[in-house]
Amino acid sequence: MKFEKLNVKTMVENSQTAQAIRIIMSIFGGLACGIMGYTGFNGFYFYFALNILICVFLLIKSQFQYTKYFRGVMDFLLGDIYSNLLCFIMFWCLGYALINVYE
């Protein structure tokens, strides 16, 4: 049985970096969703597809060894998904209102 030393400070920084990526993608994803005119469940499907895409890219970046870089599977997969969802909805409504409401 082999034990590895884990640097907690680095793991926290990795989680914060991943959260910043998720927030930025929620902002730009929400704007893109609103500009494309998605309404209803299509927008939520877009959000969940965006989250899956982020998880895949983080997995590739961590070389499929996420336990070395993140505190756990839930931290890696979800992060702070609900506050990101609220950010996504806010920018989704903004993008939709700016482009599609006054056509």
Describe what you observe in this structure.
The protein has 103 residues and is mostly helical. The chain has one domain (8-99). The protein contains five helices and no strands. The chain has helices at residues 8-35, 41-61, 66-69, 73-77, 81-99. Helix 1 packs antiparallel against helix 2 (41-61) and helix 1 (8-35) runs parallel beside helix 5. It is elongated, with a radius of gyration of 16 Å. The protein starts with 7 loop residues before the first helix and ends with a helix. The model has no long low-confidence stretch (mean pLDDT 85).
Brief summary of the model shown:
The chain has helices at residues 8-35, 41-61, 66-69, 73-77, 81-99.
Question: Mind sketching the topology for me?
Answer:
Blueprint: H1 8-35, H2 41-61, H3 66-69, H4 73-77, H5 81-99
Helix pairs in contact: 1-2, 1-5
List keywords for this structure.
single chain, mainly alpha
Q: Tally the helices: what do you get?
A: 5
Backbone shape = elongated
Indicate the mean pLDDT: 85
Largest sheet: none
Q: What gap, in angstroms, lies between the N and C termini?
A: 65 Å
**Rg measurement, Å:** 16 Å
Which assembly state applies to the chains in this document? single chain
Instruction: Find the structural class using helix and strand composition.
Output: mainly alpha
DSSP helix fraction: over 70%
Q: Point out poorly predicted stretches.
A: none
Order of helices and strands: HHHHH
Percent strand: under 5%
Number of strands: 0
- How many structural domains are formed by the residues? 1
